[in-house]
Amino acid sequence: MSHLETEWIQQAIQGNEDAFAYLVELYQRPVYNLCYRMLGNVQEAEDAAQEAFWRAYQALRRYDPQRPFITWLLSIAAHYCIDQQRKRRMPLLDLDLLPEEDIPDGAPDPARVIAERDSQEQIHQLLKKLSSLDRAAIILRYWYDFSEEEIARTLSLTVSAVKSRLFRARRELAERYQIEMEKPLVGRRANETTSTV
Predict the structure, then answer these.
(1) 4-53 per-position pLDDT tens digit
(2) Are 1 and 69 in contact (CB under 8 A)?
(3) What angle, 0 to 180 degrees and rounded to 10, lies between the N-to-C axes of helices 42-58 and 17-39?
(4) Domains by residue range for the chain, with CATH
């Protein structure tokens, strides 16, 4: 955490709205990205990100400076998104759970691009089948590098429960991925087409 960031946090805790606005500007992208990965809808993600920042502002005096501010913010956002998923009680659509990568210079190999796109789509479809808590644990661990202890705090679970969920979710993803890989390509594409209708 930079000295300037620490100063903004201290000023925001003391009620300086401009300082909090700087923090929102600094962290709006990672908070929005998490909300989008959890909810899969642009408008819902924007609303959730705004709600997460509002809740953070309301809870600023309870922020523990020993904890990274971004981790605290992402925890608030993740918790809110899980609540929204539970309210919907329906499958999530259009999740984009793969980490963003910079596009390299030069023309990419078309065959490699197609293979990567197919692989990403398969992972995308498989992640949607996890429960909301398992999905949140996987996203926080592998896309945001949360420790098991941080995930436990965020999801109100014990560390052993987090370890169990991560293990089970990884195994389920691996098994489902293996099954998908054994299907003929034509069959996989047909399934993807019908699943989006």
Answers:
(1) 888 999 999 999 999 999 999 999 999 998 988 888 788 999 999 999 99
(2) yes
(3) 140
(4) 1-96 (1.10.1740.10), 105-197 (1.10.10.10)
CA distance readout (Å), 181 to 117, 127, 135, 146: 14, 15, 21, 30
- The token duo for 6 is 């620490």
d(CA 23, CA 27): 6
CA atoms of 44 and 77, how far apart (whole Å): 12
Tokens, residue 61: 């005096």
Q: CB of 172 within 8 A of CB of 154?
A: no
List pLDDT tens digits, range 77-133. Answer: 998 998 888 776 544 433 344 444 333 444 344 445 445 555 656 666 677 788 888
DSSP states of 46-82: HHHHHHHHHHHHHTGGG--TTS-HHHHHHHHHHHHHH
State how far the Cα of 6 lies from the Cα of 4, in Å rounded to an integer: 5
Rg (Cα) of the chain, in Å, rounded?
19
| pTM reported for the whole predicted model | 0.66
